[in-house]
Amino acid sequence: MSKLALKVTAVEELTPLVKRFRFEDPTGAPLPVFSGGAHITVEMPDGDTIRRNSYSLISDPYDPSGYEIAVRREDTGRGGSRHMHTAVAEGDTITVSVPANLFQLDLRARKHVLIGGGIGITPFLSQLRQLDRAQQPYELHYAARSRAEAAGIALLPQAAHIHVHISEEGNRMDLGAILDGHPLGTHVYTCGPEGLIAAVADQAARLGWPTSAVHSEAFTAPPPGEPFEVTIASTGQTVAVKADQSLLEALEQAGVEIDYSCRGGACGRCETAVTACDGQIEHNDHWLSADERAAQTKIMPCMSRFTGTRLELDL
Fold this sequence. Notes:
This protein is an alpha/beta fold. The chain has six helices and 16 strands.
């Protein structure tokens, strides 16, 4: 994966839990442009481990002068967001991937309905700029528990088609009303907690929306768990996976080449064949089917863990 070494040119606290970071080329050279909904993967040294977290780009897709991301601090996570909040400052150099997009707009749609919950507003901040430029009709609905937690309010333009729903103010989203009455050919996009994504999909199905018009992106991170070992079939090498380390991170640290993109179990890039399994794979991804999970012949190293006596990978 191509990487860029960029300078941190701005850090801004949007809420006590969310910071905005801006990265620019240290020589002022233009950065590759991207499409709305794209993300970058940020590398964060943490002892002998390099954490790699993917974040949606929130800046203008057509502005090559810099990239911006918004990071919510997760104190119970594995440390990536905490590192961004506590160790990254203006003037630092940071390594990021070139942008990739797993949550693109379908520009054939007659209209776009964007629904974001919490930090799930981030991919829509670049998408709405793309839609404005393309002069395509859309409406955006942003839900948060309180204004203090609604980091997206400071980043959203004020317009009649931008709607903010604050639960503690009694202004919850009414998904039935939001999804009803749109012209044929409208597409809906959801990003946020899995409960919100499921609720939008259920409501869309009840109203007869075709599944091809319903899109979503979930923010997930590999869960911690018990340490385990894997064997590399081609070399016989044994790789130890720590309790706070994903299998993908352990393979990277051991110098085992493996492809990846989202690092959240959604894109399928790191799918790996299992050549021997004496135990139980803990599948935490959104990629493999129920049958594939039950067969235990494939694994997504970015999200999955293992309990048992032997796990051998076709690497």
